[in-house]
Amino acid sequence: MLPNRSDLLYERSATGAAPRASGASQDAGLEDAAAETTSFDDAELGPWGMLEWFAVGQTLLPALLFIPGNQPFRAAIRASAFLCSLLALTAWYLRSGTASARHPARRWLTLVFVVLAAMIFHPETGNLVAGVGQIALYVAVFAPVVWVPAFVTGRRQLTRVLAILLVCNGLNSTVGVLQVYAPKRWMPSEFSSTFTLNRDILRISTYQGPDGRPIVRPPGLYDTPGAVCGAGAVAALLGLIFSLEPGPWWRRAMALALSAAGIAAVYLSHVRASAVVGLAMMVTYVALLVRQRQTLRAMNFGALAVALVLAGFVAASTLGGPSVRDRFVTLFSDPRDLYYSSRGVQLENAFSDLLTTYPFGAGLARWGVMNNYAGGSGSTRLWAEIQPAAWILDGGLFLLALYPVALASTLRWHVRLLERLRDPADRLCTGAIVAVNVGTLVLVTTFVPFTTQLGLQFWFLEGLLCGAMGGRLPPDA
After folding, report:
1. Residue 192 CB coordination number (10 Å)
2. Can you name the residues that pair with 206 across neighbouring β-strands?
3. Residue 43: what pLDDT?
């Protein structure tokens, strides 16, 4: 296959050869003219390396809970996805401990680690095991931004990993849809003990179908009702992006089908926050295309997105009944009051109560998964269902300041990349990752993404972007 102009531009910048001054304006004009036809590199199947298998593992390992009889090993299975990140960090350190590019958030995340390590000595930290476990959880989530860049070979690999994420999340979403269509065949035989031992929680996770039958919010390839919503939002965006790229018709059709499954899975999960996240991702991607003066691509993406979102809503309402329609219509009634009643109260409480009570943190492992598994030393269990509250409890003012600064530095770097990358194909790949990660940022005030696999995915994608694009800025950038 002959190299396209984008590949030639990359080879020129990679060897350090500067373009001739007399042709600089001509190059800029050609890039603008080519912007409408530039696409991702072909996401070929191989060779696969650590990054590809890591991406698969983030879906495959939790899916082990889908297999009957694995509930006794739930803690180990849940930890395995995070353990893979820590093992990869160790492999990176033993390899040389260096990377070709350093993400701008690394310095701030190092300070986050320092704050968490100091919190080991907080008098209210549950115990040493729980404290170390909580620190390990944080490190596992942001570790990919450190080790991933060293294993990235280029833009082609980045595109391949995005395609893998589309397939994994799309299959997860498809299973979620099938769980509503034929629950006896596709629903996991065992749910998490949180739901099986508490009928009230399971009842809240159930809604009435079109024929009056109870429908449990689909978990997808997991064991928690409604858990498919995150995979659905990612599949919806990436499927739309890949469906509009040049390539065989069957591959574009498959991408579109996976996107449709993702949208339907979000509706059927009844998780309104994921619907907002999906919309935010799509709007962000369209805005970035317009910013890059790719008007035709933006119009095609926007039109297809609107059509698919509406079609998915109709299909999900048909399959899930009026409950689906009634659930999501509330987003348009009074979204401000809706947010305040569901999560806004907790956000207000985080700053008015938690921050004043625990300005220097409440001790490690006082809330969440680590508190469940590692226990405490008698300290009262606390609750955090939004990220600011979690930061306050784990590190007080210091963590509340440092982690958002790391995220802000990431956004600032995104802007720099999109403004200064020369190759339009580079900007397309960057825009796709930025759009996905904006969705995670939206969840900060409704969830605790940066202590879950959503945060792990965020920093994994940032590491990919850093490794593939960090060294491709022009010398004067």
Report:
1. 20
2. 216
3. 55
Partners of 216 in beta bridges: 206
Write down the residue that tokens 């912007």 correspond to: 35
The DSSP letter of residue 37 is T
CB count within 10 Å of CB 34 equals 15
Give CA separation, 255 vs 58, 171, 457, in Å.
20, 11, 20
Q: How far apart are CA 394 and CA 382, in angstroms?
A: 11
Instruction: Say how far apart CA 157 and CA 318 lie, in whole Å.
Output: 39
**Contact present, 253 and 209 (Cβ < 8 Å):** no
Query: What pLDDT does residue 213 have?
Result: 87
Amino acid at 135: I
CB neighbour burial string for 376-412, b if at least 16 within 10 angstroms, e if fewer:
beebeebebbbbbbbbbbbbbebbbebbbebbebbee
Q: What is the pLDDT of residue 373?
A: 74
pTM for the model: 0.88
Helix/strand/coil for 186: helix
What value, to the nearest 5°, has the Cα angle with vertex 109 and ends 103 and 110?
A: 105
Residue 207, beta-bridge partner list? 215
Extents of the domains making up the chain: 50-469
Residue listed under structure tokens 């492999």: 91
The single residue listed with the structure tokens 């994420």 is 165
Residue 112 pLDDT > 90, yes or no?
yes
Instruction: Please report which helix (H) or strand (E) contains residue 436, including its range.
Output: helix 424-442
C-alpha closest to that of 150 among 241, 50, 245: 50
- Tens-digit pLDDT profile for residues 194-250: 666 666 677 788 888 888 888 889 999 988 888 999 999 999 999 999 999 888 899
**Residue 215, beta-bridge partner list:** 207
Residue type, 207: Y
Helix (H, G, I), strand (E, B) or coil at 270: coil
CB of 166 closer than 8 Å to CB of 235: yes
Question: Residue type for 187, please?
Answer: M
State the residue for tokens 């820590």. 86
Type and span of the H or E element at 453: helix 453-469
In the chain, DSSP finds a helix count (H) and a strand count (E) of 23, 2
First to last CA, the chain: 32
Alpha-helical runs (H) found in 244-383 = 249-269, 272-291, 295-320, 322-329, 335-339, 345-349, 355-357, 368-374
The token pair at 183 is 């629950």
Cβ–Cβ under 8 Å, residues 81 and 140: no
Tokens of 469: 């694009």
Transcribe 61-112 into DSSP letters.
TGGGGGSTT-GGGHHHHHHHHHHHHHHHHHHHHHHTS--SS--TTHHHHHHH
Cα separation, 101 vs 88, in Å, equals 17
Q: How far apart are CA 463 and CA 467, in angstroms?
A: 6
Rounded Cα–Cα distance for residues 202 and 433 (Å): 35
